[in-house]
């Protein structure tokens, strides 16, 4: 059974800990080395200067490019040289104790126990051999501190993983709600289209206005073509403004709408315009960061123009991946299939404007 990939919060946490563990170890070990060199006996100063140089090199590596081997060398060298760093024979060197403690704790934030455990055991053995009996309580303390540091790190990682799981669940719920809202909007569009086609035909038959069976059959065939999207020439004229108003209801952003008098247009063209406008509005809500969006319906000779504009962050249209079909599939291709056009103008920091045009050919 393979472990699942870490989420965004967990990845950021791990990256932050890894980035700061080295510099923390570098600063603490360097300070300890300076004080250790100052406290060293006079006859051990050459050795102390050498250990200081090793510590500073390892600290520099910790800052710029952490090296596990150099951190082992630093702690091991100081631990092995304890008999010469203390003025009291058999006394544990504070320099060695502090360096090993710092190293052991920060390792728990960077490396797994299967890597640090064997080396920590070796360093403790070196300390015990060089420091004598005073090192036994030191060794026990270092082990306890290492376990606690690792336990804290694991708990924080699990906390970030739970945060990622909650976020993923919330995103899934929001996506399901968005899909449900989209389904309900499409149902409303379809019912509006049904009202303008089949319902009108049924009413005409019921009232006796259409008594000729051949005419009724023609109306039914036309209605079926409109409802299935295969009719493009003689659709029932419908009011585009009504469909757009229904689409604007309950949007996630405030909408500033301007309506001009426009002619009735075929139902299939109106449906394509409404759905393309809905996709443009959805993109503005999800990606633009705008405070509001404007929608304008105007007339052109033999047709209509619908303009959706926002003052959000904008984007570079040429950088949109081919797999992203929101604008390309739901807007441009849908309008082309309906006999119209769609133009998307945007730039980073300059907002986005989507212009939908349809006119009788």
UniProtKB/TrEMBL annotation:
Gene3D superfamilies: Histidine kinase-like ATPase, C-terminal domain (3.30.565.10)
Record's keyword terms, sorted: ATP-binding, Kinase, Membrane, Nucleotide-binding, Transferase, Transmembrane, Transmembrane helix, Two-component regulatory system
Histidine kinase/HSP90-like ATPase domain segment(s): 271-358
GO MF term list: ATP binding; kinase activity
InterPro entries (UniProt xref): HATPase_C_sf, HATPase_dom, Sensor_HK_TwoCompSys
One Pfam family here: HATPase_c
GO biological process: phosphorelay signal transduction system
Transmembrane parts of this sequence: 20-38
CDD domains: HATPase_UhpB-NarQ-NarX-like (cd16917)
KW Zinc (keyword) present: no
Protein name stated in the entry: ATP-binding protein
């Amino acid at each position: 059974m393979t472990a699942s990939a870490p989420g965004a919060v967990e990845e950021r946490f791990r990256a932050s800990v890894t980035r700061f563990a080295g510099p923390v170890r570098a600063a603490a070990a360097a300070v300890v080395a300076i004080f250790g060199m100052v406290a060293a006996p006079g006859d051990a100063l050459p050795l102390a200067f050498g250990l200081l140089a090793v510590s500073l090199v390892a600290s520099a590596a910790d800052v710029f490019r952490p090296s596990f081997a150099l951190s082992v060398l630093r702690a091991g060298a100081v631990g092995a040289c304890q008999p010469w760093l203390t003025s009291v024979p058999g006394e544990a060197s504070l320099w060695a104790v502090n360096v090993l403690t710092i190293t052991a704790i920060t390792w728990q934030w960077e490396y797994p126990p299967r890597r640090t455990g064997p080396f920590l055991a070796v360093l403790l053995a070196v300390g015990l051999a060089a420091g004598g009996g005073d090192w036994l309580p030191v060794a026990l303390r270092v082990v306890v501190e290492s376990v606690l540091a690792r336990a804290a790190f694991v708990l924080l990682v699990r906390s970030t993983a739970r945060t990622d799981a909650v976020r993923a669940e919330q995103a899934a719920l929001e996506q399901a709600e968005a899909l449900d809202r989209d389904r309900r909007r499409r149902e409303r569009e379809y019912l509006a289209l049904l009202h303008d086609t089949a319902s009108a035909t049924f009413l005409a038959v019921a009232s006796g206005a259409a008594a000729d069976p051949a005419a009724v059959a023609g109306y039914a065939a036309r209605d079926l073509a409109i409802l299935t999207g295969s009719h493009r020439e003689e659709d029932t004229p419908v009011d585009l403004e009504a469909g757009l108003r229904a689409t604007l209801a309950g949007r996630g952003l405030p909408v500033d709408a301007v309506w001009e008098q426009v002619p009735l247009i075929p139902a299939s063209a109106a449906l394509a315009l409404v759905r393309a406008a809905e996709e443009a509005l959805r993109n503005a809500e999800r990606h633009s960061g705008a405070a509001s969006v404007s929608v304008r319906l105007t007339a052109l000779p033999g047709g209509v123009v619908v303009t959706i504009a926002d003052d959000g962050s904008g984007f570079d249209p040429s950088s949109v991946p081919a797999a992203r079909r929101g604008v390309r599939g739901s807007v441009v291709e849908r309008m082309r299939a309906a006999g119209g056009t769609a133009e998307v103008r945007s730039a980073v920091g300059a907002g986005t404007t989507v212009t939908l045009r349809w006119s009788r050919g």
